[in-house]
Design brief:
The protein has three helices and five strands; from the N terminus they run αβββααββ. It is of the alpha+beta class. It has a single domain, classed as 2-Layer Sandwich (HIT family, subunit A), CATH 3.30.428.10. A five-stranded antiparallel β-sheet has the order 1-2-3-5-4, with helices on one face. The protein is globular, with a radius of gyration of 13 Å. One of its GO terms (molecular function) is catalytic activity.
C-alpha cells in the first residue's frame, strides 16, 4: 500500500494522527471534518495515497467505487437521506490536502450553486 510520509491524511490513515473515525474498511477510512460546513461533514479517504479523484479513477477505479459506497453508508448511519458528495481537485477548486477525499455533507438544506 502506498503512502506519502508528508501527507496529513496518510498519517491519519496510518494512526499517527488522531481523528474522530466514524467508519472504516480495509481500503477506506471515514472521519469527521475538523472544520464542519454542515451538521454532518465527514471525509472519506482511501488508505492508499492518491493525489486526487482523477488519479484514483485512473489507477484504482474499484477503490473510487468503494469511496462512494462508504460515503453513502456514512450518510445512512448519520440518518440523512439527502446529502452532497464533494471531490475538490486542485488548489483553485478548494483542495487543501492532496490526498483524494470525498466530503459527505448533510443535515441541512444545500443551496445551489455551492459557491
Amino acid at each position: 500500500m502506498s503512502a506519502d510520509a508528508d501527507c496529513l491524511f496518510c498519517k491519519i490513515a496510518g494512526g499517527q494522527i488522531p481523528a474522530d473515525v466514524v467508519r472504516e474498511s480495509e481500503r477506506t477510512l471515514a472521519f469527521r471534518d475538523i472544520s464542519p460546513q454542515a451538521p454532518t461533514h465527514v471525509l472519506v479517504i482511501p488508505r492508499e495515497h492518491h493525489r486526487d479523484v482523477a488519479s484514483l479513477a485512473a489507477e484504482s477505479p474499484d477503490t473510487l467505487a468503494e469511496l462512494v459506497r462508504e460515503a453513502a453508508a456514512v450518510a445512512a448511519a448519520e440518518g440523512i437521506e439527502a446529502y452532497r458528495l464533494v471531490f475538490n481537485t486542485g488548489s483553485e477548486a478548494g483542495q487543501s490536502v492532496f490526498h483524494v477525499h470525498v466530503h459527505v455533507l448533510g443535515g441541512r438544506a444545500m443551496t445551489w450553486p455551492p459557491g
